[in-house]
Amino acid sequence: MFLPLLSADNWLREHPRQLGPRAFVDRAQGAMRIIAVDEIAEALGLTPGMALADARARVPELDSVPYDPQADAQLLDRLADACDRFTPSVALDSPDGLILDITGCAHLWDGESGLVTALATLLVRQGMTLRLALADTPDQARALARHGGELLRAGRRIRPSQINDVRPVYDGVGTGDMLTQNPEPMGIEALSVRALGLGEDRTTALHRAGLVTLGDLATRPRAPLAARFGADAVTRLARLLGEEDVRITPRRTPPALTCARRFAEPVARTDFIHAALHALAADAGAELARRGQGGRVFAVQLFRSDGARHRLQIETGQATRDPDLVMRLLGERIETLSDPLDPGFGYDLIRLDIAVAEPLAATQPGLDGRGDGAQALSLLTDRLSVRLGAGRVRRFAAGDSHIPECAGFTVPAGRPVLPLAEHAAPAGEPPLRPVRMLDPPQIVDVIAEVPDGPPRRFRWRRQTHDITAFEGPERIAAEWWKRRDGAGLTRDYYRVEDSAGRRFWMFRHGLYGAEKTSPDWYLHGLFG
Amino acid sequence: MIDSHPPLARLKRQIEALSPPLGDGHRGRASLGLSALDARLGGGIAKGAVHEVLPCTAEDGASAAAFALMLAARISGPAGKILWIATDAQLRRGGQPYGPGLRGLGLDPDQLILVTAPDDLACLKAASDSLACAGLAAVIIEAGETKRLDLTASRRLALAAERSGVTALLLRPGESVIASAAASRWQVASAPSVLLPGQAPGHPMLSLSLVRHRGGARPFDMMVEWNNDDRSFCEPTLLRGVSSPVERRQLAA
Prior knowledge:
The complex is a heterodimer of chains A (528) and B (253).
Chain A: H1 6-14, E1 22-28, E2 31-37, H2 39-43, H3 52-58, E3 63-66, H4 69-83, E4 90-93, E5 97-100, H5 111-125, E6 133-134, H6 138-147, E7 164-165, H7 177-181, H8 200-208, H9 214-218, H10 222-229, H11 231-240, E8 257-267, H12 270-291, E9 293-304, E10 309-320, H13 323-335, E11 347-359, H14 373-388, E12 393-398, H15 404-407, E13 408-412, E14 436-448, E15 455-460, E16 463-476, E17 491-498, E18 503-509, E19 520-526
Chain B: H1 6-18, E1 29-30, H2 35-41, E2 45-46, E3 50-55, H3 61-76, E4 82-87, H4 88-94, E5 96-97, H5 99-104, E6 112-117, H6 120-131, E7 138-142, H7 151-164, E8 167-171, E9 184-190, E10 205-213, E11 220-227, E12 232-234, H8 245-252
Parallel strand pairs in B: 3-8, 3-9, 4-6, 4-7, 7-8
Antiparallel strand pairs in B: 1-2, 9-10, 10-11, 11-12
């Protein structure tokens, strides 16, 4: 799918009925240059890359608008979201195209022609101008969409014959219905060599050699072509001719399992949506049980009839296929939404994707009827993770580092951590590390007898603490091997106790004299 | 005298039948490892109840947190799971729990799950949910000074704890005197430790005072030391019998 006038269409969505000629300009190579044009400007002969001054000289009434790549990217993203209803694997072809892999999806839309018509209708209604092509490989489809065929525009009826298609026609095969309606499918051989995307110089060279279409190239021996026009020319040619098939990288990895429900009449009532979701979860659960699997990540997509899409995702700590549990977590998730689900005119498609599935054997509950403690705990962490956010339910992990704050940190509870060898303190030692760490360390005023000696007294939170006992310094050097310049200040840690018996962990940042003339003191942790 | 009054006695019996006994230890008691302390508490700290831990002054917050962790370690044993729920504000002020430091107290960091809540309400909601989870041994709740944690809220926590057998340890900041349904209330202050050779700070020493107790224990003050190798409270080293220099030489040899 190619959207040649993405910028113009985007602008028109914001400012309806303000026709051009219009150019989208940005500063490049020391001058304001045209990045994109609308339909009228294009008809007047303005092309991207032209300086704005030249364009104004030619078309005085030209309206220039600053080019906004971010807004265009957002629109493309939204369009890709909308296309998720046709297939789970949609790839962005930035900045102005989308590639959909519809393998195995067409039958849901009454064949390929049905799918293509629905897709074109959806996007044209959104005010987009586009060119669609259908081919065996992504590269072929891309070339056909960008370099041939008819533009589909708002206000016109969509006919399947406007779609480029280069697949061979098989007589009597059901899926070929669209091809039989298509009287002269534009073959990939008829495309200009421009479709190779080799740049201006090499394209001109090909033209000079009398090679105008891909068909001219297809019959020639490849070795001389590679010698003259570069190895990538041959690779691209092979891809365009379908000899080499490179799959697309979808925006989201295709889910392990998908269950969807389409509605003839859009549904807007909450209880109805819940019932549909529950039925989907039950379907998915049955299928997962058949496979001996359970889902870890569940994504619900609600497609509104006006093209908007809502996406909810939940994760569970343990694989599950219990629809009630999934619904409970989804309920938590919906409750925490900052803007509640707005069904608008209603959803016409609800889909449940199980993005990650893991093996899950059937389990037998205990005879006493009480659940397993570990399972109850994992349910609790799931619920809290969904309600508060996964980053708020954490467990402790150990890092392989000397720097105290890197040696112990917390990670979200659902994430696996590598078990690290336990550094047990020798028996009889008091705790050498504080129970609570101040993050970041807090700067304190310290009085010490000698600049590189232990602290005698310090002031923290407007309280003066007289130090009666200390242990240290425990010298911890910066990780100089991680920095190119090898810089970084050494920390001298002291375990201190004040006159009231409070125990603190503090450090001097920088070696006196060697690294710093007046090192600062920081309070890093509190012992019990 | 009053009990003998028939209508009043009947009413009392009715009330007793209605409300489940709170914190009388029918879920069992966890020994604190120090016989003097256990004896005063009637056998240890009650499981399946709410216990409040308050710092004596604002600077004793870390000691109060450490005491709650020590209680949780006694209740959970070496493998039971402990959930620590704290609000962001409290963690910013009091500091983040630190894994190696927990290990220093004798706790396995894998036993602990940390939940941070954006505000007090979310903290209490999460607390009441986790008190219903039988997979936990103890829940440490660190909410700010909040009006939400009134008698009703603490009674709700106590009932949830009672039902599931999970022990709740409520860390309250400051000297709050709000009425609560807790089974016991402790005030904790740091105390100078018994210094190690070379004037180094020694094992954690806490000055505990039991302020109130539902089981009828009399309020008392006590100095205790925490032994992180045994995961248990013990008498301060100074109060133990002092060994003679000869014995010490033998020990060192």
